Amino acid sequence: MARQKLSGTGMTYFIRRQLACPAPGAFDATPSWAGLQLREWVLPRVLELTHTGRRIAPYQGCRATVRSARRGWSGLPSCTVTEPPFLGSTRVFYDTVAADYAEHLRAELADRPMDRALLTVFAELVRAAGAGPVADLGCGPGAVTAQLHTLGLAVFGVDLSPQMVAQARQAHPGLRFDEGSMSALDLPDGALGGITAFYSIMHTPPELLPAVFAEFHRVLAPGGHVLLAFLVGDEQFHRTEAYGRAVSIDYFLRPAERVGDAVSRAGLVIHAQMLREPHGDAEKRPRAYLLARKPDETDQP
Ligand SMILES: C[S@@+](CC[C@H](N)C(=O)[O-])C[C@H]1O[C@@H](n2cnc3c(N)ncnc32)[C@H](O)[C@@H]1O
């Protein structure tokens, strides 16, 4: 499990930036920031540190300790953060199955006409808004990323699993794929004209989805679009076998309305939602598609 000790102004910077501090400057404007405000405001939101050891993001369920420096309030705190367990297990799972997944699902998008149709709609909207590049979050072996590239978008993929990123790079050598977590993107505010997240939110515990959508809102430019595709249900299950291998991974399926509520609460305006039934032998559960947009100056207050 990734661990990192940060201290001083670096931590202050990360906390402000990643947790979107509600009162900019408050942390260092008062002598109590190291003790009171970190404990009362930051810790309840919990910290995530990605395995690269560079990022902190708001996540419940992560252990964190904050100690004020020995010199008292004028000193700087230190913080030990531990990656939330579900990110580690998701990474290990997809690292384990990446080659099999890529092999079995290589042509899957060809069998998903609805996915392709909605990607075409999304591409048209993003082009019309002209708000910047697109990130395909949880890109896996990169089929959606490649489809968006074919549709004329400047797109790159991001995935938690290094092995999935390796598969994507091998399959699409001309495209960019980065390791990273959709909950803590290594991108400046407002950098993206669009985000796709296809079947990649289902391992995030539902109580943590608001933080993920807050991150989407942060990195989107005003007028930028998000297209989500996800399995629908109202259940949590644990899988111990995949492609003949022993694995350990949790799935969290939620009704489409509940996911939509979380998207809206993050400040994104829902443009379209669609449910479809499973088709073919491989699909067992219904799927939802949700298209949303970050408001810009053309939106009514
Ligand atoms: C079921 S696969 C879907 C891959 C691809 N989007 C597709 O439609 O074929 C889910 C992918 O999401 C990635 N993933 C899950 N949680 C993630 C997170 N928090 N940040 C980035 N990637 C994540 C996994 O590593 C995996 O590659």
Please characterize this protein's 3D structure.
The strands form four sheets. Strands 8-7-6-9-10-14-13 form a seven-stranded mixed β-sheet, with helices on both faces. The chain has a three-stranded antiparallel β-sheet with strand order 1-5-4. A two-stranded antiparallel ribbon has the order 2-3. Helix 4 (85-104) runs parallel beside helix 7 and helix 8 (209-219) crosses helix 9 (256-265). By secondary structure, it is α/β, with parallel strands linked by helices. It folds into two domains: 1-83, no CATH class; 86-299, Vaccinia Virus protein VP39 (Rossmann fold, 3-Layer(aba) Sandwich), CATH 3.40.50.150. The termini are far apart. It has helices at 8-18, 26-29, 33-42, 85-104, 113-129, 143-150, 162-171, 209-219, 256-265, and strands at residues 3-7, 47-49, 56-58, 64-67, 78-82, 134-137, 155-159, 176-179, 192-198, 220-231, 235-242, 245-253, 269-276, 287-293. Strand 6 (134-137), helix 6 (143-150) and strand 7 form a beta-alpha-beta unit. It contains nine helices and 14 strands. It is 34% helix and 28% strand. The chain is globular. Bound molecules: S-adenosylmethionine.
